[in-house]
Amino acid sequence: MVERISKWQAVMSVLASFVGIQSSKNYERDSSDENFKQLIIFGFFLAVILHVGIFFSRQDYSLEIWSALKKKLIELFNINLINRSLS
User: Fold this and answer.
1) How confident is the model over 22-52, as pLDDT tens digits?
2) Hey, where are the domains in the chain?
3) Apex CA 82: angle with CA 79 and CA 84, to 5°?
4) First and final CA of the chain: distance in angstroms?
């Protein structure tokens, strides 16, 4: 019977795979696990976090998004927002 991996092992395996330091022993363990859904889910979330982090690391994009969101909130809810600068 194949031993199932824990959630912590799945997270660490996905992180190691993203960095490129996954050992062959852990790779074999992960590929033989019948419940690979958690590996796919953790991998997807890590990829999303990575892409969002890269996107928001550019100051001009984050300010543009904040300005557009602020404008939309004013239009939708007709509220008065205090103009604050992002520091």
Assistant:
1) 888 888 888 886 778 888 899 999 999 988 8
2) 1-56, 58-87
3) 140
4) 56
